[in-house]
Design a protein that fits this description.
By secondary structure, the chain is an alpha/beta fold. The protein has six helices and twelve strands. The longest helix has 26 residues. About 3% of the residues have low confidence.
């Protein structure tokens, strides 16, 4: 039986990259039924998209969301920095689905401001720095996946999460995460929001800041490369969902890989939307 959610916030799936846990995403989505869904950026990693790598498992996730759209589900696609080229489609709307830069939702606890969070990352102002950081992170994930599959699994060990560990212990990374969270909360307070929900930094968290005597709650939905997490809102309460991978995760096959360029990917997605419009 599916769990009923009032709101689901999921981000940073990075479909189209080696480290994306598309199978686990799909397994999770099949266990829930959400009234509202916010895809909070970096759904498809267009920045690091490789035309030689587009597994069927990744397309299954895309088609699952397309099916939800066809059912009339209220879904917001918030554009992130790895899929920012989709900003050319801002305000595109079909049924209850729309592509946006940000979204504000009303809850009993107050207004919730949702956006990807890359506006707080000053390094994105320099494109080559962004790409270098992205490639470094992606290759770290590839190395991590290879070690887990080829070494840790045969030895009966637990999954390793290199970048997550580095972010937890490297002083500058810890300072950056802390500054990001506080800045998001302060900005939310200035704009009259009680809650702010981001993605981007792949660090799932719910934390309340007291700013000028008022409690502002910062939230982050994490990612589906390492944390395998999302934000769920049920019965007027926010919580972090942490997915536990299935025991046979290392045995999964990606299936046939579809080769396509960025333009072909756009064309394929637009064709799917055209089918929905014609229904």
């Amino acid at each position: 039986m599916k769990r009923n959610l009032d709101i689901l916030v999921i981000s940073d799936l990075h479909l189209g990259t080696y480290g994306s846990e598309a199978d686990e995403v799909l397994a999770y989505l099949k266990t829930i039924d959400a009234k509202k869904i916010v895809i909070n950026g970096d759904f498809i990693d267009i920045m690091l998209f490789n035309k030689k790598f587009w597994p069927n498992s990744h397309m299954k996730v895309v088609r699952y969301f397309l099916d939800l759209i066809s059912q009339g589900k209220e879904i917001y696609y918030v554009v992130g920095n790895h899929d920012e080229s989709l900003r050319k489609f801002l305000n595109f709307k079909i049924q209850n689905f729309q592509i946006v830069n940000q979204v504000v939702l009303d809850t009993e606890g107050g207004k919730v401001w949702l956006f990807h969070g890359d506006v707080f990352d000053f390094s994105i102002q320099t494109q080559w720095i962004t790409k270098l950081a992205g490639y470094t992170y992606d290759y770290m994930i590839i190395a991590n996946s290879w070690i887990n599959k080829k070494i840790m699994k045969p030895l009966g060990g637990k999954r390793l999460n290199f970048s997550k560990t580095i972010k937890s212990y490297v002083k500058t990374a810890v300072q950056y995460l802390s500054s990001f969270e506080e800045l998001a909360a302060e900005t939310a307070k200035k704009n009259g929001y009680k809650y702010v929900a981001c993605g981007h930094i792949h660090n799932p968290k719910i934390k309340t800041f007291n700013i000028d005597g008022e409690d502002i709650t910062y939230m982050n939905s994490g990612d589906w490369l390492e944390s395998l997490s999302s934000l769920e809102y049920v019965n007027n309460k926010w919580s972090i969902y942490e997915h536990i991978p299935s025991e046979d995760e290392f045995k999964k096959e990606e299936g046939e890989r579809i080769e396509m360029t960025n333009k072909e990917l756009y064309a394929d997605l637009l064709a799917e939307f055209k089918i929905l419009q014609d229904k």
